[in-house]
C-alpha cells in the first residue's frame, strides 16, 4: 500500500513537472525593437519569460544593422513589438522576411496612444498645452504612413552607431548570442555625424509627419502596457492573469514616477533649453516643458549650417540655460552650441543607454529624463 502511494505520488509529481514544462514551452518567443519597448514587455512578462532586444543599447534606432543573433531571434519569434516604421524604417523588411509567421504589433497604432506631429524648423514656439497637436489612435489612422517624411531613410547606411566600448557594457548579457556577430562592426560616436546621415545633404528635409518618439509620454507607456498584456494573453491564455496583473502594476509604477517628478520639473517649466535632436516633445507635453530648439531633426540627421546658425542665434536671444547631448552621438555639435553662450552642457538620453535592461527599465528611464531636465537651472 505504501509503495502504491509512493508510486502514485511520484506519478503526480511527474505529471505536474510535465505540465509545468509544457506551460513554459508555450510562453511566446517575443522580440522587441528598442530598449524602452523591451522594458515595457519585460514588465508584463515578469515571472513568465523574457523578451529579446534587436537594437542594442547605445546604438541609434534610426539606422542599424542587425547581428546574426538578432536576426535569428526575429526568425524564431512568435510575437514582435516595435514602435513602428516611422522610427525604424529599415526594420520593416527584416520583419516581413524573417518574422513572417509572427504576430507583429506596431505600438504607434495601439489603442489609447497619444500622437504628435513633427515640429518644423530648428527653433520651436512655446506650445499651448491646452490645444497642441495631440491626436489619438483614431485620428492617426487617417495619416498615410508614406507621408511621414522617412522615404529617404531607405538610402541610409544601417551600420551601428553605438559606443566603441559597448561590447563591454553591462547590457551584453540580454539575450544576444554575440559569438561571430562582430562582422557588423560598430562605429563609435565620433564617426556618427559623417556616417549614415550624410546622404541627406544639408537641406534639413523638414519632417511633416508623425513623430515616432511616443514612448517618452508616460501616458503612452501605460497604454502600451495594456496593449502588450492583451497580445500576450491571446497567444498565452494560461498566463493571462499574470500579464494583466503585471501591466496594472507597471502602470501604477509609472504614475508614481510621474507624481514624484512634477514638483521638480515645475521649477524649470520656463527655463529655455536646446536638445540634440527633436525627440522629446512627448515628454515635454507631459510635464508642461518646452524646448527652445533642436540641433538636429527628429531622425538625428546631420544639421545644415543654416540650422546651426539659427540655433546659435536662439541661444543668444532667449538666454538658453542648457544644451543636452545624447550618448549615441558625437558631442562636437553640442559643444559648438554651448560656446555660443555661457550655458550648461548636460546629457539626456531617450533610449536609456546607462539603464539596466529589465522590468524596471521604463520607470527608471522616466526618472533619468526628469532628473536631467531638473538639473537645467
What's the CATH H-level superfamily name of the largest domain?
Nitrogenase molybdenum iron protein domain
Oligomer: single chain
Task: Spell the H/E element sequence.
Answer: HEHEHEHEHHHHEHEHEHEH
**Could you say how many structural domains there are in total?**
2
**The CATH architecture of the largest domain:** 3-Layer(aba) Sandwich
Strand order of the largest sheet: 2-1-3-4
Name the CATH class of the largest domain.
Alpha Beta
Ends distance: 79 Å
Structural class: alpha/beta
Shape: globular
Mean pLDDT: 77
Determine the CATH topology of the largest domain. Answer: Rossmann fold
How many distinct beta strands?
8
Percent strand equals 5-15%
* H/I helix tally: 12
Helix-strand blueprint:
Layout: H1 2-25, E1 30-32, H2 35-45, E2 52-53, H3 68-75, E3 79-82, H4 92-98, E4 103-106, H5 137-140, H6 189-192, H7 218-235, H8 240-266, E5 273-277, H9 281-286, E6 293-296, H10 305-318, E7 322-325, H11 332-338, E8 344-347, H12 361-374
Parallel strand pairs: 1-2, 1-3, 3-4, 5-6, 5-7, 7-8
Question: Can you walk me through this structure?
Answer:
Residues 124-211 have a biased composition (Basic and acidic residues). It comes from Tritonibacter litoralis. This protein is an alpha/beta fold and 377 residues long. It has 2 domains: 27-118 and 134-256, 3-Layer(aba) Sandwich (Rossmann fold), CATH 3.40.50.1980; 262-374, Rossmann fold. The protein has 12 helices and 8 strands. The protein has helices spanning 2-25, 35-45, 68-75, 92-98, 137-140, 189-192, 218-235, 240-266, 281-286, 305-318, 332-338, 361-374, and strands at 30-32, 52-53, 79-82, 103-106, 273-277, 293-296, 322-325, 344-347. Strands 2-1-3-4 form a 4-stranded parallel sheet, with helices on both faces. Strands 6-5-7-8 form a 4-stranded parallel sheet.
Amino acid at each position: 500500500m505504501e509503495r502504491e502511494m509512493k508510486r502514485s505520488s511520484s506519478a503526480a509529481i511527474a505529471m505536474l513537472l510535465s505540465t509545468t514544462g509544457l506551460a513554459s514551452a508555450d510562453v511566446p518567443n517575443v522580440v522587441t525593437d528598442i530598449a524602452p519597448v523591451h522594458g515595457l514587455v519585460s514588465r508584463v512578462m515578469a515571472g513568465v519569460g523574457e523578451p529579446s532586444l534587436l537594437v542594442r543599447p547605445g546604438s541609434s534606432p534610426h539606422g542599424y544593422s542587425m547581428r546574426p543573433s538578432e536576426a535569428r531571434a526575429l526568425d524564431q519569434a512568435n510575437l514582435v513589438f516595435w514602435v513602428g516604421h516611422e522610427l525604424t524604417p529599415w526594420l520593416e523588411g527584416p520583419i516581413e522576411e524573417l518574422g513572417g509567421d509572427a504576430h507583429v504589433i506596431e505600438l504607434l497604432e495601439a489603442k489609447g496612444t497619444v500622437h504628435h506631429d513633427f515640429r518644423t524648423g530648428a527653433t520651436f514656439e512655446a506650445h499651448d498645452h491646452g490645444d497642441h497637436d495631440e491626436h489619438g489612435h483614431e485620428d492617426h489612422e487617417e495619416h498615410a504612413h508614406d507621408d511621414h517624411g522617412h522615404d529617404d531613410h531607405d538610402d541610409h547606411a544601417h551600420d551601428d552607431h553605438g559606443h566603441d566600448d559597448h561590447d563591454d557594457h553591462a547590457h551584453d548579457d540580454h539575450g544576444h548570442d554575440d559569438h561571430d556577430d562582430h562582422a557588423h562592426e560598430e562605429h563609435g560616436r565620433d564617426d556618427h555625424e559623417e556616417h549614415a546621415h550624410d546622404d541627406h545633404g544639408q537641406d534639413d528635409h523638414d519632417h511633416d509627419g508623425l513623430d515616432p518618439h511616443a514612448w517618452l509620454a508616460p501616458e503612452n507607456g501605460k497604454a502600451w502596457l495594456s496593449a502588450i498584456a492583451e497580445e500576450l494573453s491571446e497567444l498565452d491564455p494560461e498566463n493571462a492573469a499574470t500579464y494583466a496583473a503585471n501591466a496594472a502594476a507597471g502602470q501604477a509604477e509609472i504614475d508614481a514616477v510621474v507624481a514624484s517628478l512634477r514638483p521638480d520639473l515645475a521649477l524649470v517649466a520656463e527655463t529655455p533649453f536646446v536638445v540634440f535632436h527633436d525627440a522629446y516633445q512627448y515628454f515635454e507635453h507631459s510635464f508642461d516643458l518646452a524646448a527652445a530648439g533642436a540641433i538636429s531633426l527628429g531622425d538625428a540627421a546631420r544639421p545644415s549650417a543654416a540650422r546651426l546658425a539659427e540655433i546659435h542665434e536662439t541661444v543668444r536671444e532667449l538666454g538658453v540655460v542648457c544644451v543636452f547631448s545624447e550618448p549615441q552621438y558625437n558631442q562636437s555639435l553640442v559643444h559648438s552650441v554651448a560656446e555660443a553662450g555661457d550655458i550648461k552642457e548636460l546629457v539626456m538620453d531617450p533610449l536609456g543607454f546607462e539603464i539596466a535592461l529589465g522590468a524596471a527599465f521604463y520607470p527608471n528611464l522616466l526618472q533619468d529624463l526628469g532628473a536631467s531636465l531638473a538639473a537645467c537651472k
